[in-house]
Amino acid sequence: MVSSMTKEIKIALLMAASLFMEILDGTIVTTALPKMAQYFHTSLSTIALLVSVYLITVAIFIPLSGWMANRFGKKKIWIIAVIIFTFSSLSNALAPNFSFLLLMRIVQGISGALMTPTARLIVLEKTPASQLLKMVSYLIWPALIAPAIAPVVGGFIITYWSWHWIFLINIPIGLIIALIGIKLIDTDKINKTSSFDLLGFIEIACSSGIILIGAELATHGKNYWFSSLGLIILGVILGFMVFKHLKKASNPLFSLDGLKITSFRICQTSGSILWLSVGAMPYLLTIFLQTIFHWSAVKAGSYVLFIFIGNIGIKPFTNPIIRKLGYRGALLSSFGMVFITSIALAFIETTTLPIWIMFLALVSGVGRSLALTAYNGLSFSEIDPQDRNSANTLNAVVSTLAQGMGISLITVVVNLFQFFFLINTAYELGFIFLGLLMLFPVIEVLFLPKNIGHATIS
Q1: What confidence tens digit (pLDDT) does each residue in 151-197 have?
Q2: Phi then psi for 298, rounded to 5 degrees?
């Protein structure tokens, strides 16, 4: 079977493997935090820095990926990033103290920030429009599978081995894909004259970092809300400065020209709402079932798992659905599923049949998976190959920020509702809020031409 694959498909699968390693590492760590807190004799809130610091580091250094790939070569940057990620994983497992472990998580975050966008770029830059949806689909699988299996794999490792293996499992994966990549990926052209936009990088890094730090603070309780709001506002102001700088700079860190193309611009605006929802819904449903229904974490998690089952179960059919309905039709259908299930979840009670809750979670996952696939295909459908580097970098920055904001946003929203309503009503309104969020992308997509992105599905 492998021998019958084209070289392009083999490379796409290899890149998907590196994405899987990075996404799994970013999600599986949360299952090990209690054990790690005991091991290092520190509080759970302190050990949780391993997650937030990693995510913030990724957001800060992602903007570097496009320029470095252009300046030093995509193959070289990807292989170096994979190797650094692999050996920083080993260093995490062997960390003698928490400070060293935190430092290695920062190193791991930097390498992940370079590895993930570069992997996507390796696939995107040489893929013709007619094959774009197919190739991009390979890159979506890791984002769907890794979060689904992370709790199970993490729980198994913590129960039967030790937290060290959370990081050690990256070593064989990293070494194998690096060795295959050295042989399989062609050496690409580099631009030695490409100047580095230091001011642009500093502005983007500060804006992204401050926004995510503010979002993280919001999850620590009402006492931090004003500080959180202040940081987010500061980050947004810096974001406007970044936009102005990138528009005027003669050699910007990455170009904003992609935003002139409707299909790409829509994917950054309404697509961000989807990414917010993707992060928020599993979290909200989990906390709701534990807090309001008084279910155990294991029981609540087993029901939330149906979101991920829906994500993965529909995936083999997403491309045919998109080809049948077009991007516009597929997106509107997926938004409808997300909207209806979000509203319906607001009305479940302790007497609700378990199969109904499972069904709603499943359909919610189906809708998100279909929308995610459609957005990823549509995003680059009208971007010229030579412009995909900048577009890929911008897309990575936007999606990372949106994902990072999801849990923080719904946490604040539910807490705000608790000022005016009973706690169970506040959670119910939280589901309605997530459903109503879908109205914005619906309005945007409604005005798209029916044949938008047709070159990738014809």
Answers
A1: 778 888 888 888 999 999 999 999 999 999 999 998 888 777 778 88
A2: -65, -45
**Per-residue pLDDT tens over the stretch 374-399:** 998 888 888 888 888 889 989 888 88
Whether the CA torsion 397, 413, 346, 269 is positive or negative: it is negative
Half-sphere exposure of 7 (CA within 13 A, CB side): 7
* Total H helices, total E strands in the chain: 17, 0
Instruction: Give me the chain's average pLDDT, please.
Output: 88
Cα 240 to the center of its chain, rounded Å: 23
CB 442 within 8 A of CB 328: no
- Say how far apart CA 287 and CA 277 lie, in whole Å: 15
- Which DSSP category does 220 fall into? T
Alpha-carbon Rg of the chain, whole angstroms? Answer: 21
DSSP 346: T
**What does the alpha-carbon distance between residue 452 and residue 72 come to, in Å, rounded to a whole number?**
35
Set out the domains of the chain in order of their start, with CATH numbers: 1-196 (1.20.1250.20), 257-458 (1.20.1250.20)
- Please report, in angstroms and rounded to a whole number, the separation of the first and last CA atoms in the chain: 26
Residue type, 132: L
Nearest to 446 by CA among 360, 329, 334: 329
The residue count of the chain comes to 458
Whether the Cβ atoms of residue 212 and residue 59 lie closer than 8 Å to each other = yes
Integer Cα distance of 194 and 373 in angstroms: 33
